Amino acid sequence: MRLLLVEDDNHVAAALSAVLARHGFDVTHARNGEEALQALVPEGEPYGVVLLDLGLPDQDGYEVCGKIRKRTATPVIMVTARSDVRSRIHGLNLGADDYVVKPYDTGELLARIHAVSRRTAHEDAPAAGESSLRLGTVRIELPTRQVSVDGTVVQLTRKEFDLLALLAQRPGVVFRREQIISEVWRTSWEGTGRTLEVHVASLRSKLRMPALIETVRGVGYRLVAPAA
C-alpha cells in the first residue's frame, strides 16, 4: 500500500518511514501542506492512506485536511497533540477518517492504518438489494451512503455513516460497544473505544439531534427514532 506521510520533522519522518516500510508500506514523505497537496496529483497507483500531522509550518493542518478531502476520497488519519474531544470532532467534520494522539504507540498507529484501509475496501462495494432507512426526518440512503435531515444532505465521514447505519437498522435496540467496534472498525482492539465516543458526539452534532443516539451506561448505544 502507498502511504503519504505529511510530517515537517525530518527525524520523526525518517524513523516512522522505516517502521512503515518494514510493515510493507511504500511511503512518500511530504514536509508541509503544499508538498502534500502536490503529491496527491493523480498519477500512478493512488495512496491507500494519508497520515497527516497537524503541526505543519506553512498551513494549518485542519485546512490541509479539508483541501485533501475536496481532492480525493483517500482515508486521512490525523496525528495531533490535541487530546480534547472538540478538536477531534473538528477534524472529523473536515473529513478525517481517524486520529492518533501524540505520543502514540507504533502498534496503535499500524492498527488504525490497517483498520481504515480494510474498512475503505469493504465500503467500495455496497451489497446488492440494500435501499434506504427512514427514521422520522432522517433518511439514510445505503447504496449511495447519503444521509439527509428534512431533505437537507448532511456530510458524514465513512465511519460516521457506518455507525449511524448500524444503529438505524434496529432502532431501540442496544448495541454493545464491543459489537459496534467489531462491525464499524472491524477490529476488537480495545483502544478504539475512545474513538467510538468521539464519533457518537460528532454524529449528534452534525445531525443536530443530541437525543438521537442514547448512551446506555456500561453497555453501549442505541438509536432513538425521532418523530416524523
From TrEMBL:
Molecular function in Gene Ontology? phosphorelay response regulator activity; transcription cis-regulatory region binding
Give start and end residues of each DNA-binding region. 130-225
Residues of the Response regulatory domain: 2-117
Protein name listed in UniProt: Sensory transduction protein RegX3
CDD domains tied to this protein? trans_reg_C (cd00383)
Q: Which domain of life is it from?
A: Bacteria
Organism for this UniProt entry = Streptomyces tagetis
Q: Any one cellular component term from GO for this entry?
A: cytosol
